[in-house]
């Protein structure tokens, strides 16, 4: 009787796990279907070439223009700018935590990083608007109130804990025997880190970078508050820009009637964002599979 009860419990748990898995697959399929169907209706009116290569994005004004390059370049400016901040700092923090920090230092730094990760993004946006932007305007008076540099800095700070924590986990997973072998050969700590630890944990480090940059691609509120909502085709980080996610927020506020071409731009932009993120993940998977290290 007891074995039968255990068997029934295991079957229930197994079925529950299977349902959760199928629900995630179904949700993904529905999202792709909605994006594809609404984007198809949009591209029945606007050509793909005009959408991808146009340099003016004014779907809410007359004459209408649907060139998404200003939004794409604005998003890339935020992602690249935040990468310059979070990748080197996150890797340095991870190296310090895994190789140099004492237990007391880890017990202090780790919770602080977790607190940074738990702060709402809208708070980061106001922090950029009220603290980072005034500093930038003091150093560079030509800086606009809403600017890409402020958005990049605050997004870099926001995703820094993710990079540091995941890189720390990747470095901690390297067997101690590899490090001890390096020290036995007379190498310094820096040489062990550069020549053994980082190459051995390279796939995990790359995974943390891509995951963090994917988060930067999809960041909404912090970028909307800090970088503004001006879809300019510019590479000047001191000017106001608009990202793909902030445009989706702008149109989703309710002022645009559903069903029109303006409303369908949401799904076209979201589909492009989905494809860009998917492409990044495919590249990261290729890199991780190429440099993956398996330890017994």
Top keywords for this entry?
about 300 residues, MetI-like fold, 2 domains, about 75% helix
3D architecture notes:
This protein has twelve helices and two strands. The chain has 296 residues and is mainly alpha-helical. It folds into two domains: 2-44; 58-291, MetI-like (MetI-like fold), CATH 1.10.3720.10. The protein has a two-stranded antiparallel sheet. The radius of gyration is 23 Å and the shape is globular. The protein starts with a helix and ends in a 5-residue tail after the last helix.
**Most strands sheet:** 2 strands, antiparallel
What is the fold named in CATH at topology level of the largest domain? MetI-like fold
Work out the radius of gyration.
23 Å
Strand tally: 2
Low-confidence stretches: none
Which structural class do the helices and strands define? mainly alpha
Give the SSE string. Answer: HHEEHHHHHHHHHH
CATH homologous superfamily (4th level) name of the largest domain? MetI-like
Instruction: Give the N-to-C terminal Cα separation.
Output: 41 Å
* CATH hierarchy: architecture of the largest domain: Orthogonal Bundle
Give the CATH level 1 class of the largest domain. Mainly Alpha
The fraction of residues assigned to DSSP E strands is: under 5%
What gross morphology would you assign? globular
Strand arrangement across the biggest beta sheet: 1-2
Number of separate helices: 12
Mean pLDDT: 84
């Amino acid at each position: 009787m007891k074995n039968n009860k255990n068997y029934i419990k295991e079957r229930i748990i197994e079925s529950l796990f299977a349902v959760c898995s199928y629900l995630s697959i179904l949700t993904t399929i529905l999202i792709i279907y909605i994006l594809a169907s609404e984007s198809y209706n949009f591209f029945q009116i606007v050509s793909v070439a005009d959408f991808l290569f146009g340099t003016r994005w004014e779907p809410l004004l007359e004459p209408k223009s649907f060139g998404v390059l200003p939004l794409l370049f604005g998003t890339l400016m935020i992602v690249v700018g935040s990468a310059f901040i979070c990748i080197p700092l996150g890797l340095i923090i991870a190296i310090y935590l895994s190789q140099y920090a004492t237990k007391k230092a880890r017990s202090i730094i780790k919770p602080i990083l977790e607190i940074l990760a738990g702060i709402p993004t809208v708070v980061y946006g106001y922090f950029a608007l009220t603290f980072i932007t005034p500093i930038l305007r003091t150093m560079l008076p030509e800086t606009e109130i809403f600017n890409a540099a402020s958005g990049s800095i605050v997004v870099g700070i926001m995703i820094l804990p993710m990079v540091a924590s995941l890189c720390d986990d990747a470095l901690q997973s390297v067997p101690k025997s590899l490090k001890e072998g390096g020290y036995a050969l007379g190498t310094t700590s820096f040489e062990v880190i550069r020549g053994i630890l980082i190459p051995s944990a390279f796939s995990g480090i790359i995974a943390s970078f891509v995951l963090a940059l994917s988060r930067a691609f999809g960041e909404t509120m912090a970028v909307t508050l800090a970088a503004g909502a001006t879809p300019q085709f510019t590479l000047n980080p001191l000017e106001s820009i608009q990202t793909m996610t902030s445009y989706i927020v702008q149109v989703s506020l309710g002022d645009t009637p559903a069903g029109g071409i303006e409303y369908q731009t949401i799904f076209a932009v979201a589909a492009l964002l989905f494809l860009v993120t998917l492409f990044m993940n495919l590249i990261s998977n290729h890199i991780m599979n190429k440099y993956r290290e398996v330890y017994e």
